[in-house]
Amino acid sequence: MRLLASLASLVVLLFAASLMIGPAGLGFGESLAALFRGEGGPVALVMQQIRLPRAILGLLAGAALGLSGAAMQGFLRNPLAEPGLIGVSSSAALGAVIALQTGLAAAFALALPLAALAGAAGACLLILLMAGPRGGALALILAGIAISALAGAATSLVLNLSPNPFAAAEIVYWMMGSLADRSMTHVWLAAPFILAGGAALFTLGRGLDALTLGEDAAESLGMNLRRMRLVLIFGTAAGVGASVAVAGAIGFVGLVVPHLLRPLTGARPSRLLPAAALGGAAVLLAADIATRLIAPERDLKLGVLTAIIGAPFFLHLIWRMRRVEA
Amino acid sequence: MGRAAVFALALLAAMPAWAGPPRRVVSINLCTDQLAMLLAEPGQLISVSDLATDPLASSMIEEARAYPANRGGAEQVFLMHPDLVLAGSYTSQASVALLRDLGVRVVQVAPVDSLAGVSEQIRVIAEALGRAEAGEALVRDFEAGLAALARDLPPATAALYYPNGYTTGKGTLADDVLAYTNFGNVGATAGVTGGGTLPMERLIMADPDVIVTSAPYPGASRSEEILTHPALTELRARAGVVATTDADWICGTPHILRAVAAMRAARDGLEAGE
Amino acid sequence: MTLLSLDNLTVRRGASAVVDGVGLKVAPGEFVGLIGPNGAGKTTLLRAALGFIPHEGASNLAALSPAARARAVAFLPQGRDIAWPVSVADLVALGRAPWGAADPGHPAVAGALSRMGLDGFHDRIATELSGGEQTRVLIARLLAQETPLILADEPGAGLDPEAQIRAMQVFADLAASGRAVVASIHDLGLAARHCTRLVMLERGRLAADGPPREVLTDALLARVFGIRAFHAETADGPVFQPVAVIR
């Protein structure tokens, strides 16, 4: 409980910092007041239409990534399972790009998150098929590499074929993610999916705890593994899909956050879930603030920062697993 | 005389003397395409670049369809047997160098960065084509058209805003169009020289009277989403005047008059609204 | 009353039957040892009885809902999985999950730990224990579930002699107190000494079912296991020791 409280206060702090930091360099009191002002001049516009959606999306996407990382790891009993690493995020990006380039998203706004959800769900399904609970770490990572590569290539192809000259240059955005210049429209598109996905994943806590003992033991403890698998696919696909649809694929959050918080939660998956959601939100908000501080005029990609921090963690984990298996 | 003109004339001077005007002219640059189409004798211009038929880039797509298109590659251009190639100073240096090595005369012109530069560039191209008189006529028309659009109004503010938050500041043709129509350019005030990005937050804090954006390309892109961001839409709705840039803004040709006229109308609209 | 009731249970893998028409009824008070050579179908029989794998025939456990089954039977799988470095108490408390919350403070948790000789292991990290200790912790989880029936797949594997005897004694005591245990056991000596009844499987079929001395006959041992054994009644109870391979 103490852990959750301190993580929650960290998130609140970073959320506030995200609102206060930006190229316009507004005063603290001025911007805070403008946030709640009904009708307003430029300051209110900046606070309510630019910084608020950015902070909310950082919070939601981070929570979705942290939570789905923790849930996937619990289900697969593998600390390397992470939506970005195993191709779920890149498949969601493919879905989103297809929805945008076919004009589906323009005709019907919800097509964007729905297509991303479908892409993510497809990848989840494939991963569980290829590297289900008995598949082991190697099968998981190899299947993930294949799915990521395929989805990435297909995304590039769709963008290259677009009649829009800007689209081709946006491959890096879809692969690395950014929260720059998002609007409340994006919040309304993504939030319902992320919240529904999160709610679904939270119901898995008991089952994930039981899965600590393996599939058969979990089943004998009354857990319905087939139902859990469906909930996991829906929850992850909805959360990750919606995040990717509006912010691009941001890697490693779902890997690093559960890894850091596991020892603080007694390693129990059910206790890790809320902690990883809060931790993910904190990490993404912090990374997004950092992009604004390091290179304010350059739209530094979020995924660049999370990868710089996350990839060494990933190597460290592989190193540790290698030692255990040896 | 502008830098561009000096550059081009220096190139001309360096060339051996030719007997008479060029007979087979190929243009491989969007802007020289249009000036050449306006100035060349019938039959003198044998090819223009493929961009000349792109409605989002060219002001003369109808005229351009009458010419075979080229993609600017040295091989393709050389096989057209030109005796003059018109190119921009940023046109692929490799292609230009190769054409020169092959003995083709190439005239390169720099992008026009002011309204005054339009007249200069018309003269440079006219000279190269051996059409000095036609050039003078075009300059006269252009300058008369420009003078007709001049007003003496107190400056309002305008921002030029493109995909990815790109804006054009000091030292650009678009900046001069704004200045001529009594607008202060927010991009220039924000310290942008040439082209550069302006964070949306700072654009909104500058609270310009008019935001001039580009027309969207077909297909979707996240880069262009910024132009329909609710904050921007709200700001533009408040100003009540909507203006967009198009192909007319790109090149220093007499077509820039249409851009000037559009901004003139926007400025007059602001005045009437107040 | 019957706690386990299998009727003509059959599991096919391809064309061949891994478990072939097994019928079995287990009543309270019984400690049934499931014996048979490698590949005889012991693990498959247990998993099919629980309804984890597709099967023909009937099992009373497979017919229950997952939640009801978890209160009727506790199962120790062959794989000794402990995926995360959880505390021993948290792990054993998972046995309480079918009854509500997996509360490590529940008296059944402390009781189960104590029965397995794991007093003082409460806060240890389960993954850092030795293999034998981990098995004892997992058996403690089984006990904490407090079900009328326990199915255990090779509970004695990897345990030292003391822990083996202790585990068998715990199962025997549970049976004596009116519950029932079905455990697959490779150590025929332990099975002979502690089980009230032995069920011998031979290539998926029931080869024998009855009190240990009726099942562990020279003829059946020779036919099913291909071994000869030393067998004696002593003051300490029956002693059974395989001594030679005969084929």
Automatic annotation (TrEMBL), chain A:
Record flagged with keyword Glycosyltransferase: no
Coiled coil: none
InterPro entries the record matches: ABC_BtuC-like, ABC_transptr_permease_BtuC
Record flagged with keyword Cytoplasm: no
Membrane topology category: Multi-pass membrane protein
Listed GO CC annotations: plasma membrane
Location(s) in or outside the cell: Cell membrane
Main location: membrane
A GO MF label: transmembrane transporter activity
Ranges annotated as spanning the membrane: 57-76, 83-100, 106-130, 137-159, 185-204, 230-252, 272-290, 302-319
Keywords: Cell membrane, Membrane, Transmembrane, Transmembrane helix, Transport
CDD domains: TM_ABC_iron-siderophores_like
One GO process term, biological-process aspect: siderophore-iron import into cell
Family statement: Belongs to the binding-protein-dependent transport system permease family. FecCD subfamily.
Name recorded for this polypeptide: Hemin transport system permease protein HmuU
Origin species: Pseudogemmobacter humi
Lineage, top ranks: Bacteria, Pseudomonadati, Pseudomonadota, Alphaproteobacteria, Rhodobacterales
From TrEMBL, chain B:
Top-rank taxon: Bacteria
InterPro entries with a match to the protein in the record: ABC_Transporter_SBP, ABC_transptr_periplasmic_BD
SUPFAM superfamilies: Helical backbone' metal receptor
Pfam families to which the protein is assigned, alphabetical: Peripla_BP_2 (PF01497)
Domain Fe/B12 periplasmic-binding, chain residue ranges per copy: 24-274
UniProt signal peptide: 1-19
Gene3D superfamilies the record matches: Nitrogenase molybdenum iron protein domain
Keywords for this protein: Signal
Protein name per UniProt: Corrinoid ABC transporter substrate-binding protein
Lineage: Bacteria, Pseudomonadati, Pseudomonadota, Alphaproteobacteria, Rhodobacterales
Automatic annotation (TrEMBL), chain C:
Alphabetical keyword list: ATP-binding, Hydrolase, Nucleotide-binding, Translocase, Transport
Record has Nucleotide-binding as a keyword: yes
Pfam families from the UniProt entry: ABC_tran
All copies of domain ABC transporter, residue ranges: 4-228
EC id: 3.6.3.-
Keyword Metal-binding tagged: no
Enzyme superclass (EC): hydrolase
GO terms assigned for molecular function: ATP binding; ATP hydrolysis activity
Described purpose of this protein according to its UniProt entry: Part of the ABC transporter complex HmuTUV involved in hemin import. Responsible for energy coupling to the transport system.
Protein name, entry field: Hemin import ATP-binding protein HmuV
Organism in which the protein naturally occurs: Pseudogemmobacter humi
